């Protein structure tokens, strides 16, 4: 499966087809890619939803006993099979020994978050002292901004991308209001060029160069939730810091999806959720990164008992001994029943490695892109088929596994018809359907099956729209 040096996913698909003496869209190509996939066994580590269990399914259109086509890991990852075991271990411990569980077992409740922090280091590219697992994403973002955003009359802006995820947008607005700053004057939003869906890196860097002296914090998504664009984190970080800005990222859609090297890139701070690509379950415990260069210079604005050094925490003398760096940002004890699912998933990542997952992801999403363009590219308009436009950047370095699609037929019809056929993806306003084949548990043959169901859904959508 591994591409030859400098081989694009399209080249790989065509090379495999040539060896098999078939067309690149033939099912045999997908089956061969799966045969050669060294990560294919990780699918067995997860529960895959069945067609019959999906609420919108039309059982007359599918085989109820087959696996659904689950391409929604960018919204909620699937459940690792060991989650139930780990939860039951802690429930049993609680039942049998009550409060003694705080100090005993595989996951002592007082240090449960620290027990699994080491499993995050490869995923975000940081050392353990720079990572802390706590709270939810937006809570963590607020805590970070309270410490990193220190506006002055000259340097008072926060720079972000257009159409950032609403929680980020609201968090920035409220932080500005907290400092009694004007949202119009201090919230600097970069828009794509007219007629374009995604931002050009050179345009971001130009704004930083021109306006950097007035920008206190740059806060971008690592990967944009709607377009699927993977921003150039090292370039933005370098440019921002050269102008005296602090640079942070919301990595909700990047963590577990693309390779990250937060320490080496010099990112000042970052935060992420864990229920998308990290498969920790809805509302799972989130994460924070604070670069070690800030260990003794930036402290939490709000502190709690769990930011106190463990060695003296139970003296209860109310003399704060703050843990330096990221771990000092902890406020409360770790929620053990949220730690368990994340541990189950991170152990799988540790076995697979981000480098190998990213390599597979490039080919898996590239295969999906190849198939969509073959059947529904703009050059196919004369065939009277619906046109499918891929909003997500075509350059593999500028995207993760998600492709966002827009259509020449009503998006609502397309989405409904996909749901009826057991395809799990999601619809996002104003006009996008997000499709994300995840390398941990999705296969090349699923992409092939998706395309067949996609064809049927588009045909049905075209009929609906023409009859209205």
From TrEMBL:
InterPro entries: Kynureninase, PyrdxlP-dep_Trfase, PyrdxlP-dep_Trfase_major, PyrdxlP-dep_Trfase_small. The keyword Protein biosynthesis does not apply. It is an enzyme of class 3 (hydrolase). One of its GO terms (cellular component) is cytoplasm. One of its GO terms (biological process) is L-kynurenine catabolic process. Pyridoxal 5'-phosphate binds at residues 137-138, 165-168, 221, 250, 253, 275, 305, 333. It catalyses: L-kynurenine + H2O = anthranilate + L-alanine + H(+); 3-hydroxy-L-kynurenine + H2O = 3-hydroxyanthranilate + L-alanine + H(+). Its main location: cytoplasm. The modification N6-(pyridoxal phosphate)lysine is found at residue 276. GO terms for molecular function: kynureninase activity; pyridoxal phosphate binding. The keyword Transmembrane does not apply. Its cofactor is pyridoxal 5'-phosphate. Its EC number is 3.7.1.3. Keywords: Acetylation, Cytoplasm, Hydrolase, Pyridine nucleotide biosynthesis, Pyridoxal phosphate. Pathway: Cofactor biosynthesis; NAD(+) biosynthesis; quinolinate from L-kynurenine: step 2/3; Amino-acid degradation; L-kynurenine degradation; L-alanine and anthranilate from L-kynurenine: step 1/1. Gene3D superfamilies: Aspartate Aminotransferase, domain 1 (3.90.1150.10), Type I PLP-dependent aspartate aminotransferase-like (Major domain) (3.40.640.10). It is found in: Cytoplasm. Catalyzes the cleavage of L-kynurenine (L-Kyn) and L-3-hydroxykynurenine (L-3OHKyn) into anthranilic acid (AA) and 3-hydroxyanthranilic acid (3-OHAA), respectively. Has a preference for the L-3-hydroxy form. Also has cysteine-conjugate-beta-lyase activity. Homodimer. PANTHER family: KYNURENINASE. This is Kynureninase. It comes from Phyllostomus discolor. The lineage of its organism: Eukaryota, Metazoa, Chordata, Craniata, Vertebrata.
